[in-house]
Amino acid sequence: MVIHSTTLRINVLSFILALFVVCFFTGEKAFAQERGKPFFQLAVKGKKIRAEVVQTEEEKAKGLMFRESLGKDDGMLFVYDREAVLTFWMKNTPIPLSIAFMDQRGKIVDIQDMEPFSLQTHASILPAKYALEMNQGWFKRNGIKMGDVVSILAAPKK
After folding, report:
1. N or C terminus of the chain: which is more exposed, having fewer CB within 10 Å?
2. 130-145: pLDDT as tens digits
3. Cβ contact 31:23 at 8 Å
4. 72 Rama class: left (phi>0) / alpha (psi -120 to 50) / beta
5. Which domain, by its residues, includes 23?
6. What pTM value is reported for the model?
7. Higher pLDDT, 19 or 63
8. 68 occurs within a structural domain
9. How do residues 106-127 score in pLDDT, each as one tens digit?
10. Which of 122, 118, 115 shows the shortest CA–CA distance to 137?
11. CA dist., res. 2 & res. 23, Å (int)
């Protein structure tokens, strides 16, 4: 299948625009606030996810360190400026996690399991712009695999 650069550019711009709209132009009903962090409603294969979004270098460095638990369908979404091979570790993180690396369109390009407190690095096998950490096994339990697309749900009406 050939994807024309114009089509790809439109898909990328649509994903970025949707993220921008949810971030800046929707009411509080579009996301919850917990510990001052926005939680976005994402979806993949019909499964809803409540993801805390981290963007600053300080937030990314801390990630889920020192957290004792995550909700059943909760996670953390790491957002980067551009696609690159992303690397993560589990220093000071007591929760066993699975991580999905996604390209600029939200397509999952890699999924890996990570063990608590491990200093082993986990690098995406392909360049990624986003990483979504969930409880370990969440992706497998929900039948989510490489090639699936994570999307932002429309903001609820006020």
Report:
1. N
2. 999 999 999 999 999 9
3. no
4. alpha
5. 5-152
6. 0.76
7. 63
8. yes
9. 999 999 999 999 999 999 999 9
10. 115
11. 32
Cα 119 to Cα 91, 114, 115, 156: the distances in Å are: 6, 10, 9, 40
How many domains, in total, are found in the chain? 1
- Maximum pairwise Cα distance, the chain: 46
Backbone angles phi, psi at 35, to 5 degrees: 55, 30
CATH number at residue 129: 2.60.120.1140
Residue 37: the pLDDT is 62
Give whole-number Cα distances, 94 to 11, 22, 104, 137, in Å.
37, 31, 29, 15
- Residue written as token pair 């926005």: 38
Decide if 158 is inside a domain: no
Pairwise CA distance, residues 102 & 111, whole Å: 9
